[in-house]
Amino acid sequence: MNALIEISDLTYRPEDLPPDRQAILHGINLEIEPGSFTALIGPNGSGKTTLLKQMGGLLLPTIGQVLVNGLDTRDLENHRNLRSMIGMVFQNPADQIVASTVEEDIAFGLENANLPTATIRERVAEQLVYVGLTEDVARPPHLLSGGQIQKCALAGVLARQPNILLFDEPTSMLDSLSRKTFLQQIKLLHSQGMTIVYVTHHMDEAFQADRLMVLQDGQIKMLGSPKEVRQNYNKLHEIGLELPGVVVMADKLRALGWDLPSELHTEEDLINSLPHFEHQTSLGSVKTSQNDQAIIIDVDDVYYTYLADTPLAKPALQGASLSVSAGEIHGLAGSNGSGKSTLLQHLNGILRPVHGRVQVGSLEVEKPETPLKEVIKKVGLVFQSPESQFFEIFVGDEIAYGPKQINMGELRERVKTAMAQVGLDFEAFKDRRLETLSGGEKRKVAIASTIILDQDILLFDEPTAGMDPQSRDELLALFRNLSADGKTILMASHRLEEMATVTQSLSVMKGGKVVNSGSTQQVLKDNEVLFQAQLEPPFAIVISHHLIEKGWPITDLDTSTPDRLVACLKKVMK
Amino acid sequence: MSSRFEFLGNTMIGQYIPRESWFHVRDPRAKLISFVMLLAAIIFTPNLLGLLIGLIFVALIYFVSDLPLKPTWKNIKRALPFIIILAILQIIFSTPQAGEIILWQILGIEFTEAVLISAATLIFRFIVLIALINVFVMSLSTAQISTALFHLLKPFEKIGFPVNDLTMVVQITMRYLPLVAQLAEKTAKAQAARGGDWEQRGFNPIRQAKRVLPLIVPILVNSLKRAETMATAMESRGFNAADQRSSFYALKFTWQDCLLLGIFSLFTLVILLVGVLL
Question: What is the ipTM of this complex?
Answer without folding.
Answer: 0.77
